[in-house]
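Please, structure for the following, as tokens.
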Amino acid sequence: MKAEYINPFIKASTEILTQMTQIKFQVGKPTLKPSPHNANNIIILIGITGDIKGQAMLSFDETMALSIVSKMMGETQVQELDEIGKSALAELGNMILGNSATLLFNSGIKVDITPPTLMIGDNVTISTDQLEAINVPIHTESSKIDLNVFVKE
């Protein structure tokens, strides 16, 4: 996968996450993940169509999800993911991928995104039609989010 494809996803993810949570995120080393692969128990999945096709996935554990939702709700300490919390996470994914699509468009790559799908469960395995995923860990001092992007031209 070309760097020009993955960099907008990384930039949008770190900027939106920092803006929405006021938490400083660091980007780890990108790696290739073969399909199928395991994911954390909370997943935001968004499809990508246009000049490139595929999916982007944000994956994290419940502790990170509760921290993000708490920050998005104005420092209200959220104890469980209710419908409002789930909606906030889906909207976070929408903002990140919308921003990614804008960055891609500005570089001459036209894409559209699907509405986000939020999945919650244990022992989730993702199969991506034989596409390898670029996995980028985005982390804080105590937790991390896995950004997985699988696209093809």
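The chain is about 35% helix and 30% strand. The CA atoms of residues 17 and 111 lie 22 Å apart.
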